[in-house]
Structure formats: structure tokens, C-alpha cells
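User: Reviewer 2 asked us to show a designed sequence for the structure in our supplementary figure. I'm pasting the C-alpha cells here. Could you produce the per-position amino acids so we can include them in the response letter?
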């Protein structure tokens, strides 16, 4: 089968999977909703309990989960090209740590939800600026310098998070821990995250040719006319902003940005023109499915969605490692 046709079929299949995962999220829960009632609610013709549950509760949450899963997977794919490291994920540069400090500080002072989201975004943005500024230094920029700077910033943020948790009141700890593990129960409106996902894809796709060259090494990219320094800066800023919006919406959901690009790459190869949209669709579907499980497995109690993504991600990642040839490179 020609590569282009195979890629088109895969993206189409992932689009259908995304729609199926959202439909399943609308039907499943402690109050089951039949497919016909879901359709009536979406069409605006349902006036009963089912319509309120679908449009008022489950649809915004499912869309927020899809948007944030897509943001994390897209950011992870960009980070892996930027750092030329298959273990890179959206949180490797300390962005989630900065968001955690901002969000938990707002919780510590008893601020409302709007300020918690604002604190998370401010903390993530501050971490972006610190890492970007320190990694550039005198103007030179290497993957190692960027990665080490991110690790140090993440360690500092981790210490600040530990301090906040240690002085927090007992009744605040549960909300803090849920935020740190990822929680969609307070996600709010999904439209800002969906808009950022669409704009992020629109900004990333024109860079896909240059990203394909960058993945083959700086020398190859420069020889073929790529402005490596400018491309790295653009990719870092874009991936960081995508991550900041995702973390602000759902908290720190792990493994989506690490595992999904790997799985998509195994299926279609490393062509960024297809990998980026496919990763966004797959990441969104995965987080919707994980969130549906998180609120139904032990219903009416809800689990942090990050626990489910970790339980799914760890065995998949170990399987991928077992398939990696010894001494080989991806």
C-alpha cells in the first residue's frame, strides 16, 4: 500500500476513534445514557435528565479531555524532535512543575477556581521564560544545555511543591494531590484548549518539512537550508505553550505526551507531516478513554485521570523498550 494512502487511512481511523471515544464518554457513567438519548441531547431536542447530563456535564468534560490529550501528544512529538530524544515528553523542561507551584499556591490561599487556573498558567509561563533564558545564555543553544536547564528548574519546582504540601491544611491536601495526578472534574470550558490545539496544529504543520530534516541532525538540516536556531526557538515556544494550556486545564497528566508519539511513529514512521496530526488525534482519544474509565471504574467515586494514563502507559512503554534492538537507535 502506498505510504500516502496508508497515512490517510490511519488518520481517518484515528478520527473515527476520536468520535467513538467521545460518544462512549457521553454514554458511560453512573447514570447510563442510551445512544438515542445522546443524539437527542446533542440535537437539542431532549428536555429530560439525560439531556442535562450529556450537554451540561459529560460533553464539556469529554471535549476538555480530548483537547488536553491532543495538546500533550502534539507537544511531546515536538519535544522529541527538538531534543532528538525519544524519552522527551512535554514535562521534561519543568513546565508542569511551574504550573504546579502556581496552582497549589492558589489552593493554599483558598482562592477560587479561576485563580487556580490563572496561577497554573502563570507558573507554567514563568518556567518557560526561565528555561528559555538560561538555556540560551550567551546565545548558544544545545539539546544538552536545554535539557539540563529544564531538569534543574523542575527540581526547584518540585521542592516548592513539597513545601506547599507540607504547610497546607488537611482539607486542602486531597484537591492538591488530585491536581498533581491530573483531574478533569474541574476542567471548566473546553473551548480555549480546543482553540489552542487547532492553532497549534496550524502552526506546527508548516514546520513539518524542516522538522523532518532536523530529526536527521543539525548538520543535515543546515546543509539543506534550514535555519536551525530559529526553528528550535519556534518549536520550543510552541511546545511549551501547548503544554502550559494543557496543564492549566487538567493538571499534570503523565505518559500521554511520551507514549502516544511512540505508538504513532511505530505505525506510520517519522514523517512529521502525518505524525503531528495523528498524534493529536490519538492523544485526545486516549485521554477521553482514560477519563471515562476514571469516573466509571469505582463510580460514583472518581479517580485522578493521571493514575489511569500511568497504568496504561507503563506496560506500553516497557513493551516498546523490549522491542528496541540492543545497541540500536530509534
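Assistant: Here is a per-position design you can include in the supplement:
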Amino acid at each position: 500500500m502506498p505510504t500516502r494512502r496508508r497515512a490517510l487511512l490511519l488518520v481517518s481511523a484515528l478520527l473515527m476513534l476520536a468520535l467513538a471515544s467521545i460518544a462512549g464518554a457521553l454514554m458511560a457513567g453512573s447514570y447510563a445514557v442510551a445512544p438515542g438519548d445522546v443524539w437527542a441531547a446533542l440535537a437539542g431536542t431532549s428536555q429530560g435528565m439525560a439531556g442535562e447530563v450529556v450537554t451540561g456535564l459529560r460533553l464539556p468534560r469529554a471535549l476538555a479531555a480530548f483537547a488536553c490529550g491532543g495538546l500533550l501528544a502534539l507537544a511531546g512529538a515536538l519535544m522529541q524532535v527538538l531534543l532528538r530524544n525519544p524519552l522527551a515528553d512535554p514535562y521534561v523542561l519543568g513546565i508542569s512543575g511551574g504550573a504546579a507551584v502556581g496552582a497549589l499556591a492558589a489552593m493554599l490561599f483558598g482562592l477560587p477556581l479561576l485563580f487556580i487556573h490563572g496561577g497554573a498558567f502563570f507558573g507554567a509561563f514563568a518556567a518557560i521564560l526561565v528555561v528559555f533564558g538560561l538555556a540560551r545564555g550567551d546565545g548558544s543553544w544545545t539539546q544538552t544545555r536545554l535539557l539540563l536547564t529544564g531538569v534543574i528548574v523542575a527540581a526547584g519546582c518540585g521542592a516548592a511543591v513539597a513545601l506547599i504540601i507540607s504547610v497546607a491544611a488537611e482539607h486542602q491536601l486531597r484537591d492538591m494531590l488530585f491536581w498533581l495526578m491530573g483531574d478533569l472534574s474541574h476542567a471548566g470550558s473546553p473551548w480555549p484548549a480546543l482553540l489552542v490545539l487547532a492553532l497549534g496544529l496550524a502552526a506546527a504543520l508548516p514546520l513539518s518539512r524542516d522538522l523532518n530534516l532536523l530529526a536527521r541532525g543539525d548538520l543535515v538540516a543546515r546543509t539543506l537550508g534550514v535555519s536551525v536556531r530559529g526553528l528550535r526557538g519556534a518549536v520550543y515556544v510552541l511546545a511549551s505553550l501547548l503544554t502550559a494550556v494543557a496543564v492549566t486545564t487538567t493538571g499534570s497528566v503523565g505518559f500521554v505526551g511520551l507514549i502516544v508519539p511512540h505508538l504513532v511513529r511505530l505505525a506510520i514512521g517519522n514523517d512529521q507531516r502525518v505524525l503531528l496530526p495523528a498524534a493529536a488525534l490519538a492523544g485526545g482519544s486516549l485521554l477521553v478513554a482514560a477519563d471515562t474509565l476514571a469516573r466509571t471504574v469505582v463510580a460514583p467515586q472518581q479517580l485522578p485521570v493521571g493514575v489511569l494514563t500511568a497504568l496504561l502507559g507503563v506496560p506500553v512503554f516497557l513493551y516498546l523498550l523490549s522491542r528496541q534492538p540492543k545497541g540500536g537507535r530509534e
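For the response letter, you might also mention the following. The CA atoms of residues 99 and 123 lie 4 Å apart. The chain has a mean pLDDT of 87.
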